[in-house]
Design brief:
alpha+beta; 2 domains; two-stranded antiparallel sheet
């Protein structure tokens, strides 16, 4: 089956163990998510996917697929849906000619009231990104970089990782204008062309 059919099928199977209801939960959802995952990890593994989640969305990753499934927490009307925000940011980046800096994302379907998206799967190694930030920070500020407390703001992070060019400065302005403000080392990946791209750009 193609990736669209696969994504819908996986999410429908996860309906059997209550994922849509969990995503819509308004209180205590982070703790509930961890409990739910612990109770259902074997079923999830039987579907051939790994589940990862942060504060705003869930990702489902399969080794044999070149895209990952993304679904948001709290997707009901009147609440912020960070997957849809990410998709809108990508469309805006395309209009500005900056899409090469972002992992492509696309809308698939609405399944039981939850919007399902597919994003290009990138190679994620936060250590590589952290090492680049460390090198930049120590060269720029002549002091030791300690990732536990030293942070660079978004525009400086972009310069540190992508260098200085007219396009990168345009990207920096785009990120600031659209409040893409969570560019820690885990939100970058390397695409099939070997380029570093942002994989989570909904803001927070």
């Amino acid at each position: 089956m193609n990736n669209n059919e696969w994504a819908v099928n996986i999410f429908q199977r996860l309906e059997e163990i209550g994922l849509p209801s969990l995503l819509k939960n308004q209180t205590g959802w982070f703790h509930n998510m961890d409990v739910w995952f612990a109770e259902n990890c074997k079923f999830i593994e039987s579907l051939g996917v790994r589940l990862r989640h942060g504060l705003t969305k869930v990702c489902l990753i399969a080794e044999d697929r070149d895209e990952v499934i993304k679904v948001p927490f709290k997707p009901e009307r009147g609440t912020r849906d960070f997957c849809t925000q990410e998709y809108r940011n990508y469309l805006l980046a395309e209009k500005e000619g900056l899409e090469q800096f972002f992992a492509p994302i696309r809308y698939v379907d609405m399944v039981n009231g939850v919007p399902v998206y597919l994003q290009e799967k990138e190679d994620v190694d936060p250590t590589v990104v952290s090492d680049s930030l460390r090198s930049y920070y120590e060269n720029e500020y002549c002091e030791e970089y300690e990732s536990g407390w030293t942070t660079l703001d978004e525009d400086e992070t972009v310069i540190a990782l992508l260098g200085e060019s007219e396009e990168v400065y345009r990207l920096r302005n785009f990120i600031l204008d659209n409040e893409i403000n969570d560019l820690h080392s885990g939100n970058w990946g390397v695409n099939s062309c070997g380029d570093l791209v942002i994989i989570d750009y909904s803001g927070f």
